[in-house]
Amino acid sequence: MSDIFSQFDPLLGKRLQIMDENGVISADPAVSALRPPELTDELIKQAYEKMLFMKMADQKANNLQRTGRMGTYASIRGQEATQMGAGLVMKPEDWLLPAFRELGIMWLHGIPIENMYSYWMGNEMGSRPPENVNCVPISIVVGSQMLHAVGVGLGMKKKKEQKVAVAFFGDGATSEGDFHEAMNCAGVFKPNTILICQNNQWAISVPRSYQTASTTIAQKAIAYGVPGIQVDGNDLIGMYVAVKTARERAIRGEGITLIEAYTYRLGDHTTSDDAKKYRDPEEVELWKPRDPLIRLQKYLASKNLWTQETEDQLTAKYEKEIEAIVEKAQAIIYNPSDMFDYTYAVLPPQLQAQKEELLRNLPQI
Amino acid sequence: MENPKLNIVEAINLALKQEMERDPSVLIFGEDVGKDGGVFRVTDKLQAQFTEDRVFDSPLGESGIAGMAIGLAMYGFKPVVEVQFDGFYHQMLDQMLQHAARMRNRSRGRYTVPMVVRVPSGGGIKALEHHSESIETFVAHTPGLKVVYPSTPYDAKGLLLAAIRDPDPVIFMEPKRLYRAIKQEVPLEDYIVPIGVANVLQEGTDITVIAWGAMVREAQAAMENLKTNPTTAQYSVELIDLRTISPIDQATIFASVEKTGRLVIVQEAVKSFGPGAEIAALVAEKLLYSLKSPIHRVAAPDITVPYLQAEQWYLPNAQQIQNAITTVMAS
Ligand SMILES: Cc1ncc(C[n+]2csc(CCOP(=O)(O)OP(=O)(O)O)c2C)c(N)n1
Ligand SMILES: [Mg+2]
Q1: Residues with beta carbon inside 6 Å of ligand 1?
Q2: What is the pLDDT of residues A35-49, one digit of tens each?
Q3: Which of A73, A341, A358 best probes binding to B when mutated, by most B CB atoms within 10 angstroms?
Q4: Are B277 and B155 contained in the same domain?
């Protein structure tokens, strides 16, 4: 039986893409047939609207940083379809283990945007997930969370649960040793895990070609005895199909899948970075037409599901919603004693004393 | 030629440039150190001058950076590698502790590892988690490693040259908060600031204050504050910039405390088990009976470095140092 892994064998230079950058579904029936019936045009329209929202919430974070109301922020601009595709597949009982460029998927999985804003504003309360949301805090240490996803997924497998653990990470992260340990352990233990590499072509100033001499990241899976697939990460449908396949495999007990979402970081690395120093602006121009939102606009327009007017209305509506979210985020106050209270389950006496001394001497806030 | 006035970033950059011109075995690599010149621009323009052969971006893996540097160092090169931020030193801790620090001992002197790890260090720049750590205890607790931590542009250049020329691995900590905070005249000519020698910044007879890295500036601010009050203005404070964490300059510390009989130690790192504890123990072992009052440590509380909103409460500051001096003087 042929599956998408042989159909899109990374060693043969294949990449899964169902909708191209003009918003046109592949003319190849073997490819277009991969689009499952539940992924209706109506669902795609809803997904597009969520992508628009995350794009705007992302832009807002950049603005907040620029006006001094937020610390450093890492933009998801250009990577919305990768996160939306996974978000459409993931179920609330699944676990998400993000890196730091995942505002979209974290929101889709239930982390309120105001929490994320609060996080980037420098408050640990922002990285406390709501009780019913299965998402661990942002992992700043590059490459460190994939092994956790293998562990969580292994736990799910041991408990015979129909759930998965999904880790997100960048192309640069695949150079860390922990990535290779995660892949290797996953190959051996076959956990309920999906590893999604957002290959946005850059790790700060270092291009993908400097991270690895492999042609693709997906092909690294093969050496570990697990399937890997490269997907056009700006193609919502392709991402949906890849993540859905991976989730089904995991739940059947077949273990992990490495998904390389081939996408592009349209912005700077973070608000503290200036990509003009190292990146050819022509490369960015090349990627602009491949914007994941633009192609969906084209597709939806061809189905009479998108017009500039509906876009403008939505934008106005979202702007208001996001303003309200900013206020909520700013209302999340930093309580100084919180610095101490989560160090241990029970604060040792000497730490209690340090806490009292520090709080006593704090300038009135 | 007239000596330029440089900040710490420029002084380190100058040291790297001059040493690379002088010694063809010096190599620079790490994350984003090439075209980008490092996220703090410390290696700015070095790739353009020395080519990718000698200044190059590494893949994103700190263990790989350290491990390759160890190999190159054993093979006759002098790698000066950069860890992008203090918190990511821990990704290379294994290689540094198990191999860089031990190769000389293990091979009974046949192989040595003359490498430098540059570590932008400490808090105060409102950065993300893992970007404001004080790792000096982790590194100083490793026999075989030397640890230096300049606080001025002059010392940054001189200590870096000493570190690169040192026959053993050196952890070179850079106070990122001070990177662009101070300018100082830095000689263009070759000079070193020897490793293991502290600097008495101000002489005094009543009380010794020891600090390093960004805390030196806080201690200086505290001393300025003391001058505003007629009582405390009388205090004659001796301020020591430790400059080298390991091996520690015991002679300078002992001479000072023997004279003053009072000691305040300021460290940015969490209080317990840090260099401050080591200094206090040394003084207690050697000079307990010369002390006129108990030793006092000003340090961060024993908690995880908080996110940026709480940094202002967490970091030791001039006010705390001032209070400590007053307390010790009064007791
Ligand atoms: C272990 C570690 N080393 C270095 C850094 C500094 N750093 C932050 S992001 C980044 C590049 C990450 O690239 P990639 O994995 O491709 O993710 P992207 O930022 O492109 O999403 C680096 C080097 C870090 N956060 N963690
Ligand atoms: Mg990347």
Answers
A1: A 101, 140-142, 170-173, 198, 200, 202-204, 265, 269; B 31, 60, 62, 84, 88, 91
A2: 999 999 999 999 999
A3: A358
A4: no
DSSP structure string for A146-194: HHHHHHHHHHHHHTT-S--EEEEEETGGGGSHHHHHHHHHHHHH--SEE
Per-residue confidence (pLDDT) for residue A1, from 0 to 100: 41
Active site residue A278: yes
- For residue A10, give the amino acid letter: P
The band of A238, judged by pLDDT with boundaries at 50, 70 and 90, is very high
Q: Hey, are the CB atoms on A211 and B59 less than 8 Å from each other?
A: yes
For residue B237, give its domain range: 199-330
Residues B322 and B181 in one domain: no
Verify whether the Cβ–Cβ distance B307 to A351 is below 8 Å: no
Place of tokens 């190959």: A187
ipTM above 0.90, yes or no: yes
Domains, chain A, ordered by start: 4-334 (3.40.50.970), 336-365 (no CATH)
Which residues, numbered 149 to 178 in chain B, qualify as contacts with chain A under a Cβ-Cβ cut-off of 8 Å?
A: none
Residue finishing a domain among B133, B152, B185: B185
Catalytic member of B99, B130, B131, B296: B131
User: Over the stretch A196-216, which tens digit does the pLDDT of each residue have?
Assistant: 999 999 999 999 999 999 999
Number of domains in chain B: 2
| Residue A265 annotated as catalytic | yes
B204 in the same domain as B176: no
Interchain contact A122–B (C-beta under 8 A): yes
Same domain, B220 and B164: no
The answer to whether A71 faces chain B, any CB pair under 8 Å, is yes
B191 within some domain: no
